[in-house]
Design brief:
This protein is an all-alpha fold and 210 residues long. It is built from six helices and no strands. Helix 1 packs antiparallel against helix 2 and helix 1 packs parallel to helix 6.
Length: 210
Amino acid sequence: MASNTESSIHVNDNNVDYFQRAQWLRAALLGANDGLVSVTSLMMGVGSVTSVKEDINPMLLAGFAGLFAGACSMAIGEFVSVNTQRDIEMAAQMKRGKAMKNGGESNYKEEAEREKLPNPVQAAFASALAFSLGAVLPLLAAAFIREYRLRLSVVITVATSALVAFGVVGARVGGTPVVKSSVRVLIGGWVAMAITFGLTRLIGSNGLKM
């Protein structure tokens, strides 16, 4: 009986570890997808303005600005969110700890639970890193291509390939249909890029008048 109990505990521990890893991977994929779509859309929008088509610098500058701003925003947002979650869980664990002490149980379980609390700094760093990894893809694709049409085509191709890859990995992690998930991610990214490209081009062609 003892061996069966121990084996079931090990199985449960493994399931918890797998679930936590899956959650982290899913969050990383979402962050990378956000960085990819945001920066690609921003670069395409700036690149759609006629006056800067032949100049690669504004497009790259916009991409780097989007990368830095997005990574900082993701990190700060995640830090605040996880801190709030941590405060809530700490309050709940303090109540459980008091209940265990009143019941004569040891503090071991309480300490083990505290170790599982989310780390705000780690979450903020992971979120910023995931966003940056996704955002750097269109920047690398455009960095060495001077001709406008070719540069835009390469950026779109790289973004499309990355979106499909993110959709496939996300489907595998979440246990959802691969084709459906990939198409959903791809269409969402295309819509965001098309809207940004079209509206920025419309504003740029008509000029900004204050």
